[in-house]
Hints:
The protein has 273 residues and is mainly alpha-helical. Helix content is 66%, strand content 5%.
Amino acid sequence: MRTLNNHKLIIDRDCPMCQFYGSAFEKTGMLEKGSCSPYQTIDSSISHQIDMTKARNEIAFYNTQTQEVHYGLDSLVYIITHNFPFLKPFLKSLPVYFLLRKLYNFISFNRKIMAPSFQKPNERICTPDLNLTYRFLYLLLVGLLSSTVLFHFTKPINELMGWNNHLGRELMVCLGQIYWQSVVLYKLSKEKLLDYLGNMMTVSLIGTLLLLPMLWINSSSPFSTLAYFGLVVGVMFFEHIRRCKILKLGWLPSISWLIYRLAVLAIIEFRFH
């Protein structure tokens, strides 16, 4: 590898993906050891040379000799193409670069609702700006994915309970949850509403991913499916509590989240039986 020396990759210390590719760059020799530095604790001699506001949204790659700075996707492309120059025409081509940049921004602007963390005192805050387009897109995509997986997963459970199986119903339940919790959060702490909704949908995404192994196994036993589903809901509930603690929202959102789930089961039993 042609190691890039005299550079600093300014990453979010609390972002698992940032930590992953930063560590991968160093371990593979694309960057020299110690090149990755946390945004939260970067030395002022470097922070004064870069746009710290922009660096919260897009990782900064700083040349300590020339003071040249790249941000976001440009940083990653610069590092990769330094060792693999034949990839540059492809990565820089208009359609590929456009799609990669949209994907990068989608992840970067939503990273704190994907992997929230407690803010340590006396450290810089590395929370990206709120981008409504990417936030609502995240809520929509997770909602569609969760509803689709749940539709297929709950088929044997619905057959056991004598309920009809409807994809539309799963979508309505998901949208209803968003509306229900929005009302609660608006009254409790409306400035945290979109951050909470993002975290709530990440909890749904975690549950969806946990359901996939059982879905792939394609168990014919509704009892084992129901037991596994109950286990996943339990994991989701405790993860919901953990994230509410990080957001400093207390117990009310978790209690209302559970009440909604129980109310939906009761409504399905009496209306769709």
